[in-house]
Amino acid sequence: MLLNMNAHYLSGFGNEFETEALPNALPRGRNNPRRCEYGLYAEQLSGTAFTAPSSKNKRSWLYRIRPSVKHWTAPDEIDVPNWRSAPEASLTVPTQYRWDPISLDGMDANWISGMHTMTLCGDLSLQTGMATHVYAFGQSMMTDYFCNADGELLVIPQTGKLRFITELGALVVEPQEIAVIPRGVVYKVEIIEGPCRGFVCENYGQLFTLPERGPIGANGMANARDFKAPIASFHDSEEDSHVTYKWSGKFFRSQLNHCPLDVVAWHGNYYPYKYDLRDYSPIGSISFDHPDPSIFTVLTSPSELDGTANVDFVVFKERWLVGENTFRPPWYHRNAMSEFMGNIHGVYDAKPSGFGPGAMSLHNMFVPHGPDSAAFEKGASESDDPVLLKDTMSFMLETRFVQQVTTYALNGAPLQKDYPECWDGVDKKFDGSAGVK
To answer: Around Cβ 279, how many Cβ atoms within 10 Å?
Structure first.
């Protein structure tokens, strides 16, 4: 039996939802909440500790055909060589890194085998830090499924359209949208339009949430109503299948005689979700000066230090630049945080060449960076007339940790070894007498 595997959505971020694929599958009222209709089993999926504060407590109740103990049968360890986990020995030096898009040739990989780790930081066993990955694949997962116990996955497609079919329902995601798959959720990935390439942040730390708006107030940035969660669907099948588990930095594979996507109904606040980055409402200066890029934060994973993120997800989309007597492109900068960037679509204003769609860059803590010479000259000579930045969508993953580059990033990915030369044209302009009357 296959029901409701197309994508249908509930709206809101962090809401307590309930959804059922069969009528009365959810216990309600005074009915025993663990004695289920249809012969289903009740199972709680907890994304936080039982005793987490109510405002941060994440869990969902799943009403399923088989409990998950039937999906976890004597797993064997397997090798997934290009998907790495923190910590690893450091290969990083304090320089600027940039990569061309990875190739889309030879797309015989799927979601798991097509994942390549670029940077690592923190320690997954301590639930701190993150990893950045890039994926490229051309094969759907048919009877193979995946579950990551190490971190929630923030998926940022760059080309190709994907369907994430999860225990709790389906999400369809295309470029300029994102999906977040929580830790512990079983799913598979199908290609709707391919081949597929994109970026992934594997967040080992606190769950992503909306940033505080502070003086901005109640509106703007990413609005909760624009986030979408899946409605319940299920697949009742006794086909042979496999589930690959990522657990403590290793990979394990179980063989099953049924499909593990058998949740008929669920309620709670721990679930996959998607968001359209084109719905982000940018905030910026309407007078002078250049605000910090933190005003473009879509999601944040907080740390124990107030205002210092385990990881921030920031997006730079189409917007007006109207600041007067102001250098409008991103400024030259050294930062206590480390910044991994990727280009989803169009042209990034600080790097008009060498950073096309699919490209990536890394500027670690206190490594200087900023506009290349062409971007500086253009920004320094522009008038104060309003300018609409069009045809642009880039993102940044910013963390308090040093991001260590992997062996693949140095030797397998298309590293631009001449990247620092983009600043060769930034010449001395100093004239000590210019301001003397």
So the answer is: 15
The per-residue pLDDT of the chain, averaged, comes to 94
Do strands 241-247 and 234-235 pair parallel, antiparallel, or not at all (unpaired)?
Answer: unpaired
Contacts 24+ apart (CB under 8 A), 296-300: 297/211, 297/221, 298/178, 298/221, 298/222, 299/154, 299/180, 299/208, 299/209, 299/210, 299/211, 299/222, 300/208, 300/209, 300/210, 300/211
**DSSP state at residue 422:** G
Q: Provide the sign of the torsion angle of the four alpha carbons 179, 183, 184, 189, taken in this order.
A: positive
Cα separation, 164 vs 181, whole angstroms? 9
**For every residue of 334-361, which 3-state class applies, written as one string?**
CCCCEEEEEEEEECECCECCCCCCCCEE
What is the arrangement of strands in the sheet containing 17-20, beginning at the earlier edge strand? Answer: 17-20, 263-268, 59-64, 41-46
CA dihedral 31, 35, 41, 45 (to 10 degrees): 50
DSSP 417: T
Q: What is the pLDDT of residues 19-48, one digit of tens each?
A: 999 999 999 876 666 678 999 999 999 999
From the list 235, 290, 333, 363, the catalytic residue is 290
- What lies within 8 Å, CB to CB, of 418 at 6+ separation is none
Whether 116 sits among the annotated catalytic residues: the reply is no
Distances (CA, A) of 185 to 59, 147, 188, 220, 265: 12, 6, 10, 30, 15
- What pLDDT, on a 0 to 100 scale, did the predictor assign at position 31? 64
pLDDT, tens digit, 9 for 90 and up, residues 243-270: 999 999 999 999 999 999 999 999 999 9
pLDDT for residue 405: 97
- Using CA atoms, how far residue 113 sits from 133, 182, 243, 245, in Å, is 12, 20, 14, 13
Close Cβ partners of 258 (under 8 Å, ≥ 6 residues apart): 66, 70, 237, 238, 239, 241
* Cα 7 from chain centre: 20
Half-sphere exposure of 14 (CA within 13 A, CB side): 13
